[in-house]
Structures are given as structure tokens and as C-alpha cells.
Design goal:
Two copies of one chain form a homodimer.
Chain A lengths: L11 H14 L12 H8 L3 H14 L2 E2 L7 E2 L9 H6 L2 H13 L4 H14 L3
Antiparallel strand pairs in A: 1-2
The structure holds a DNA duplex (30 and 30 nucleotides).
Chain lengths: 126, 126
DNA sequence: CCAAGTGTATTAGAGTACTGATACACGTAT
DNA sequence: ATACGTGTATCAGTACTCTAATACACTTGG
């Protein structure tokens, strides 16, 4: 359900935060949906359960998740299911900034960059 | 000369490492070129001089920079000036992977993604 | 020579991220 | 009631990142 890479340099909890935010914003996670359990995610990604739990707790503070004792965390009712495309685009701006900076410093052309992006896009098309 | 963002979550020394690598790979930094001094960069970005020094030291270990006592670090002679486009493209793969994952989770279309990328590209056109 | 410029070694400390072990409170199915 | 499923609090410890304050060795320009 989530893709967590402990080797990427990006803290695991932050990867999880961002991915949940995105999937709620896009409506792939709708209000009421139960999230994978802390222990399940931890086992699956060879990560400590508390790392997951803390990420979930932060998302609850944000109002994105709801906590029900003894039951799995669920997507909060107040979490707007479908955010406008414009607002969703805002969430990838930091990544775009990083990418464009890197491509410029490598003196790639915009054509090369777009070509590689399209290639990756197709490759992730399951 | 370099763009360092202490707030980005990516360690400063790593941002510097990557940017030097890219600019050497693209030939924007040629063998013999002197790099900005440790103290200059540190002042400019409100960062501790040792943070810069340590990044430089790592780049020397990599063979990308050369150290001359009492003089600025320079790009090493062995550092291949112009790496092939194919190899340069490899350096942005992790960023592309992150971006595509994010865009998919946000359920953006490839058209929207490419459009935003082009927009950022133009905006960074100095 | 001397002052100012290079990079660096050393040591100390703070803050964050993550691990690991343990224990607890609550809900649900049997 | 029992067993198992949730999430969580706590405490300790490790590793990494960055800051800070010194001091040193070297080169260059006056």
C-alpha cells in the first residue's frame, strides 16, 4: 500500500506522512477507510512499530486521521476527499524544484528531461 | 554558485556534494577551477564552516576535488570534464522516481505533470 | 617579515531520527 | 472470560547532522 525506502535518506516517518497526505488529497483514501495496522506496516518494511505509530499520531494531529481505541486508524471524516488538481499540484512543487535544479546543473535539455520523466511514468504504469 | 536550503530536510553537506558532482559531470566546473572558500560559502548560507569543509573533504576522497595547502580547493584533473548525457541522466533517477510516485499518488495525469515541469523549467531560466 | 587568506584537526554539545524492549488500555470474536 | 487484534506511553541507547570555539599549517600579497 505504501512504498517506504529506509535507504533513501528521507526519514521513514516523513515518507509515510507525505504518502498518506497525497492519497487522501487524491481521494484514493476516503473518509472512514482503515489504514494498515502499525505492526503490519512495521513488519512489511522492517521498521520499528513506534516509527509508524508516531507518523500516524502526527497525521491525527493534522486532522487527517482519526483514532479509535482498539481499532485501526481511519481516514478522518473532515479530510476533504478530493482536493482540486491545482492544490494537489502544489504538493509536488518541492520535488519539481529539486529536479529542475539538478537537471540544470547537469546541463540536460528540457527535451531530455521530459523524455526521462515520461519513461519513468510508463515504467510505473502497473 | 550553489543553492543550499537548510530547511529542505536534505542535509546541507549532501546538497553540496550532489551539486558539485553534477556541475563537474556537466563540465560547468572544469579541472583546475577553484571552488568558493569554505568561509565564503559558510557566510553566504549561514552555515557552519566545518559543514562545508567536511563536504569538500568527502569530495576529495571521491577524487573529484584536489587540495592544495593554503590555496582554495580545485576541481581535480582526473575528474572527467564531460560525462555522457546517458550517465548524467542516471543522476536524476532517484528524483524522478520520487516525483512519479508522488504524482501517481496524487492522481495527476502525465499531461499535468509535464506541464508543471515545463513551467518550473521556464521559471528557472535565467 | 607580517597580515590575511586558504583548508583542517580537535573537542564538545545539541537536536533529530530511529531502534528496541516492555507494558498498558481498549475493542472484538470465540 | 480468553485470546488476539488495535494504538500508545515510556525509557534507554545509537547514529547522524550540525553548531561552536580553538588552534594549527600552509600560501600569497604588501
Amino acid at each position: 500500500m505504501f512504498i517506504l525506502n529506509p535507504q533513501s535518506g528521507v526519514p521513514i516517518y516523513r515518507q509515510l506522512l507525505e504518502q498518506v497526505r497525497r492519497m487522501v488529497a487524491s481521494g484514493q483514501l476516503t473518509p472512514g477507510t482503515a489504514l494498515p495496522s502499525v505492526r503490519e506496516l512495521a513488519l512489511q518494511h522492517a521498521v520499528n512499530p513506534m516509527t509508524i505509530s508516531k507518523a500516524y499520531a502526527m497525521l491525527e494531529t493534522e486532522g487527517l486521521l482519526e483514532r479509535h481505541r482498539g481499532k485501526p486508524m481511519t481516514v478522518a471524516g473532515q479530510a476533504r476527499a478530493q482536493v482540486s488538481a491545482a492544490k494537489r499540484v502544489q504538493q509536488i512543487e518541492p520535488l519539481l524544484d529539486q529536479l529542475v535544479l539538478a537537471a540544470r546543473q547537469l546541463q540536460l535539455t528540457d527535451a531530455e528531461l521530459v523524455k526521462e520523466l515520461r519513461k519513468k511514468w510508463e515504467a510505473s504504469d502497473e
